[in-house]
């Protein structure tokens, strides 16, 4: 998914910490709803919210100097194991929204709490809990590489 032209990519350290459901948000980016993402009712089709939060995770990783493609070349793939989604207030065509992310680790799972807020009034539109696990050379395993990348955010 391509970001809209006005998408901003702050570094995690430049983001003021803000409490979210899953802890402090450590990353945010802005995006805009495009007309083709909406259904006949004029609201964002439910599947597009998954694109928004996935794109946010990719931008977050890139802001830390890594990428899913680079990790794949090393034989390490972070894959979604489970999602819990809550649709709150629909986004509509041309709405600008803020995607915020918090992260913690439980066992071998990386837990991302991701919220989408309508920029005009900070109304919560969508909330997700996304659990990722790593496949190292095709097998479920701990990833020392991802632990290193995320260490600032997952150390207790």
List the main descriptive attributes of the protein structure presented here.
156 residues; 3 helices; 6-stranded antiparallel β-sheet; two-stranded antiparallel ribbon; alpha+beta
| Alpha plus pi helix count | 3
SSE string: EEEHHEEEEEH
How large, in whole angstroms, is the Cα Rg?
16 Å
Biggest sheet descriptor: 6 strands, antiparallel
> In terms of structural class, how would the helical and strand content be classed?
alpha+beta
Overall residue-averaged pLDDT value: 88
What does this structure look like?
This protein has 3 helices and 8 strands, in the order E-E-E-H-H-E-E-E-E-E-H. Strands 3, 4, 5, 6, 7 and 8 form a 6-stranded antiparallel beta sheet that branches. Strands 1-2 form a two-stranded antiparallel sheet. A hairpin with a 2-residue loop joins strand 1 and strand 2. The N terminus is likely disordered. With 156 residues, the chain is an alpha+beta fold.
In short:
The protein is an alpha+beta fold. 22% of the residues lie in helices and 39% in strands. β7 and β8 form a beta hairpin.
Blueprint (SSEs and pairs):
Layout (H helix, E strand, L loop, with lengths): L17 E3 L2 E3 L1 E6 L13 H18 L4 H6 L2 E12 L8 E11 L2 E10 L4 E14 L2 E2 L3 H11 L2
Antiparallel strand pairs: 1-2, 3-5, 4-7, 5-6, 6-7, 7-8
